[in-house]
Amino acid sequence: MKPVLALVGRPNVGKSTLFNRLTKTRDAIVADFAGLTRDRHYGNAKHGKLEFIVIDTGGFEPTAESGIYMEMAKQTRQAVAEADVVVFVVDARGGLTAQDHDIAKYLRKLGKPTVLTANKAEGMTDGVQLTEFYELGLGEVHPVSAAHGQGIRSLLEVAFESIGMSEDDDTEEDHDPTVIKLAVAGRPNVGKSTLINTWLGEERLVAFDLPGTTRDAITVPFERGGQKFELIDTAGLRRKGKVFEAIEKFSVVKTLQAIESANVVLLLLDATQGVTDQDAHIAGYILESGRAVVLALNKWDAVDAYQREQLQRQIETRLAFLKFAKLHFISAIKRQGLGPVWGAIAEAHRSATVKMSTPVLTRLLLEAVQFQQPKRAGMFRPKLRYAHQGGMNPPVIVVHGNSLEHVTESYKRFLEGRFRKEFNLVGTPLRIEMKTSKNPYTDKE
Q1: Is 300 annotated as a binding residue?
Q2: Is 14 annotated as a binding residue?
Q3: What does the annotation say about its assembly with partners (predicted)?
Q4: Considering the domain 180-352 in this protein, what is its CATH number?
């Protein structure tokens, strides 16, 4: 399972800049004023072979008793509860403040592995300016510059060393390839636990008409038709601004970890609630993780013909990026429509782990080019020469040739359609990578 690292500190010390540096994204908004980040923000990062989840938090005021700062403090406390290691960020140029002392006192009480890092320390070579931060009683001060990327590697080495891990650790778990790991994901109260109980034929998981009954990802072994499964019932993913109760502190990160570790994800939607932005958010995370996916619309028996028509339109528009996934209409509580779902799960898993031979891929590629050539870019037209498989779960097809950086996204979608049709790929993302051959004459005079 991926370890979790939380960034904590008072406002405007550079936590979001550090988050963007670690995740190699610009997902967290950065500006030179305090209090911009309010909700928790999750991202994937990598340190050598070690993959981990990093959480960005808003400015932490442990003593806040009302208003937005109290809610931000709740968010930060939950991030700390979810984390394996905490990185406490202070401002090397702004110096030590009373708020830093309050945060340090809170972290010392928890006793969780904590690394103290002084951001904005570029140019501070002698370290004399950082001595005041030793007052916080959290050990060594690690100077970094998130904006310039200085000291980040050393910081991560110390952080993961504190929990007995290093950059050489591989976070992928050893897993029996004959067992399909199936995660059931969705918003709170869509019927995930009810569905698994129906499959198992017993009240194995607590199912109750209250959002957020499941607090952790629960794994249950299951066998059907000779095929072994591991069913993972995930806690409901709420909008980040709604995750306040301490009892729900593990919900988000455990769900993200469950999706990452699954072979296939069953995304459960609620027919009575429609397709929401949160459903699209979860679907986007599944797609980003490269997991095979099956869509199931639960509580289908509770809606009339007009609502059913509206639901199908919503799915076509809001979840258009999952058009490769099969959609099933079910009622978990009445055991309706569950049989075909298993067929779709098996088909999605087969598609995600299919082996594609290089001669067949190359033939398909050349036939596609003969049917429709890629668009010319200036004087040159991309030349696609051959293709081979570069990975599974999700399938990756690597195309080699010349000037491939000019291949458009629409042409990649055209190629994807040809490959999908030939190998009957259903329920899995398909990634196409372009690798341009180096011109042997570029280094010659």
Answers
A1: yes
A2: yes
A3: Associates with the 50S ribosomal subunit.
A4: 3.40.50.300
57 is in an annotated binding site: yes
What pLDDT band is residue 238 in, cutting at 50, 70 and 90? Answer: very low
The annotation status of 56 as a binding-site residue, yes or no, is yes
Q: Positive or negative CA dihedral for 417, 419, 421, 423?
A: negative
80 is in an annotated binding site: no
* Residue 58 marked as a ligand binder: yes
Tell me if 20 is assigned to a ligand binding site.
Answer: no
334 labelled binding-site residue: no
235 annotated ligand-binding residue:
yes
User: For the packed helices 251-261 and 277-289, what is the interaxial angle rounded to 10 degrees?
Assistant: 40
Half-sphere exposure of 247 (CA within 13 A, CB side): 5
In CATH, 358-436 is 3.30.300.20 = yes
Residue 193 marked as a ligand binder: yes
Residue 11 assigned as binding residue: yes
pLDDT digits (tens, 9 = 90+) for 278-324: 788 888 888 888 899 999 998 888 888 888 888 888 888 888 888 89
Residues 274-286: pLDDT tens digits? Answer: 888 878 888 888 8
409-423 helix and 358-371 helix, angle to the nearest 10 degrees: 130
Task: Check whether 424 is labelled as a binding-site residue.
Answer: no
Domain ranges of the chain: 4-161, 180-352, 358-436
Q: Is 15 annotated for ligand binding?
A: yes
> Residue 252's pLDDT band (boundaries 50, 70, 90)?
low
C-alpha pair distances (Å), 349 with each of 127, 180, 264, 298, 356: 54, 8, 6, 22, 15
Please classify residue 59 by burial: count the beta carbons closer than 10 Å to its beta carbon, then call 0-12 exposed, 13-18 middle and 19+ buried: buried
Q: Say what the pTM is.
A: 0.66
The reply, when asked if residue 236 is annotated as ligand binding, is yes
Q: Is the pLDDT at 350 greater than 90, yes or no?
A: yes
User: Does the annotation place 59 within a ligand binding site?
Assistant: yes
Condensed to tens digits (0 to 9), the pLDDT of residues 147-161 reads 888 889 999 999 988
Give the right CATH number for 4-161 from 3.10.105.10, 1.10.3720.10, 3.90.1150.10, 3.40.50.300. 3.40.50.300
pLDDT digits (tens, 9 = 90+) for 88-110: 999 888 888 888 898 889 888 88
120 marked as binding residue: yes
Same fold for the domain at 180-352 and the one at 358-436? no
